[in-house]
Specification:
eight-stranded antiparallel β-sheet; globular
């Protein structure tokens, strides 16, 4: 059984044209790189993203380097990629992304609960 998590999605490639173009996108997470998500875009382009960046981008606008992510209403998310060749903007339905992140988190090793050291009080009588 492979521990790699994959999710196939469609994104709208936003262009200057009148209609966005639907493109297939593959989301991939390999436990060997626990903090990285790979987004395979059309043309075989593999864009690595920080898992934390994707998670935060589901809730509010975030940016790291040449990558910007922000929610667009309640049902969509925008991924903007900057490169020397220009800017590519993809709009995703948010449901497959949430499902993908949930699957990753469900497989993540459970963190031990934070424990607080027991304190002992000494009572002195006068």
């Amino acid at each position: 059984m492979s521990l790699v998590i994959q999710e196939h999605a469609r994104a709208r490639l936003i262009t200057d044209g009148p209609d966005p173009r639907l493109v297939p996108v593959e989301l991939r997470h390999d436990p060997a790189e626990p903090q990285t998500v790979h987004v395979r875009l059309p043309g075989g382009v593999d864009q690595p993203l920080g898992l934390d960046l994707l998670e935060r981008g589901l809730r509010s606008p975030v940016a790291r380097g040449d990558i910007r992510i922000w929610p667009c209403g309640r049902a969509q998310l925008v991924l903007e990629l900057h490169s020397p060749d220009g800017v590519a903007v993809f709009q995703f339905d948010i449901a497959p992304l949430i499902r993908f992140v949930s699957r990753i988190r469900a497989r993540a090793p459970k963190r031990p609960a934070a424990t607080t050291p027991a304190t002992s009080a000494t009572v002195t009588r006068a």
